[in-house]
Amino acid sequence: MADGNYHEAISHLGRTHLVLEPFVLATANELASNHPLSILLKPHFQFTLAINELAREQLISPGGYADALLVGTLESSISVIKAAIKEYLDNFSDFALPNELTQRGVGKNDLDEHGDNFLPDYPYRDDALLLWEAIESYVRDYLSLYYSSPERILEDTELRNWVQKLMSSEGGNVKGLVVNGKLETKEQLVAIATQLIFISGPQHGAVNYPQYDYMSFVPNMPLATYASPPSRDQEIDEATIMKILPPQKLAAKQLELMRTLTVFQPNRLGYPDEDFVDKRAQDALKQFQTKLNEIEEEITKRNKTRIKPYSFLLPSKVPNSLNI
Ligand SMILES: [Fe+2]
Predict the structure, then answer these.
(1) Bridge partner residues of 271 (DSSP)
(2) What dotted CATH number matches 2-209+265-317?
(3) Alpha carbon of 56 to ligand 1 centroid (Å)
(4) What sign for the dihedral angle of Cα 207, 209, 213, 215?
(5) Where are the domains of the chain?
(6) 52 alpha carbon – ligand 1 mean position (Å)
């Protein structure tokens, strides 16, 4: 139950859907539609505002799914979501995948006293890092076309307004976006754009699509329990368990939600609906697609020797934007 609530409030809604929203808005409001950063990011924001609006109407509204299914009151669940968003936006770069893994002690180089990894079988980490690196190279190749010298960054007034709007407390309130409030180098922009594309595609895919496997069978991960857990000396029979688990109607509602969230994949990472107009950018995208095909093969190979195959970060199964 705790896992399920942490997952929905923090990992899913808070730290994918809602942390992206200020970026979607600032990109639409502060950058011209032919600004290179806007052209890069927009395919990864396709349908994001629409699904977030639906979430506000049906998920975190009075009587909605969160109210009915999660363990806390709607008000307390929303306060958890808000705290999760604030921590993320205040410390934006700490949540870049390699940093986030290290902070949790499960990075590639987190070894115990025998020199072994703390968590040797961790498919999410191993596959996500491949995608992170591929996205980072793509973003760097693309941005290098337009920011060929440090002056290009400093002279870009729209980019400056984008950063200011994102960081201001009346705007996006992304306090941790850049140190000292100034974006001065291409590498800073590469890091930000990589993180945004990673959240919208792989990260959301990795928290969304496994929900059917883990959460549609309610006894595996009930979003709330309805009686105290049995004490140590109490005999546990079916009646005791049934009292603890959600009533049938709510169990069906949880199943319905998990099914709805996991049956659609409307787009695919690295395959935007429209080609870039700039031929050089098309080349960067083609290279990204080639890299994604290599990753597809690598993960397929890994899955043959894993304890259990992990398919959620196969590039062909990763959406291009957060849209469900
Ligand atoms: Fe989602």
Answers:
(1) 268
(2) 1.20.245.10
(3) 12
(4) positive
(5) 2-209+265-317
(6) 9
Q: What is the whole-number distance in angstroms between the Cα of residue 110 and the centre of ligand 1?
A: 30
Q: How far is the CA of 17 from the centre of ligand 1 (A)?
A: 6
**pTM (2 d.p.):** 0.97
Is residue 305 within a helix (H) or strand (E), and if so which, with residue range?
helix 279-305
pLDDT in tens, the chain (324 residues): 999 999 999 999 999 999 999 999 999 999 999 999 999 999 999 999 999 999 999 999 999 999 999 999 999 999 999 999 999 999 999 999 999 999 999 999 999 999 999 999 999 999 999 999 999 999 999 999 999 999 999 999 999 999 999 999 999 999 999 988 899 999 999 999 999 999 999 999 999 999 999 999 999 999 999 999 889 998 899 999 999 999 999 999 999 999 999 999 999 999 999 999 999 999 999 999 999 999 999 999 999 999 999 999 999 999 999 999
Question: 61 CA distance to ligand 1 centroid (A)?
Answer: 16
Distance 41 CA to ligand 1 centre (A): 18
Judge whether 320 and 269 are in contact, CB under 8 Å. Answer: yes
Rounded to the nearest angstrom, the distance between the alpha carbon of 166 and the centre of ligand 1 is 23
Question: Distance from the CA of 155 to the center of ligand 1, in angstroms?
Answer: 37
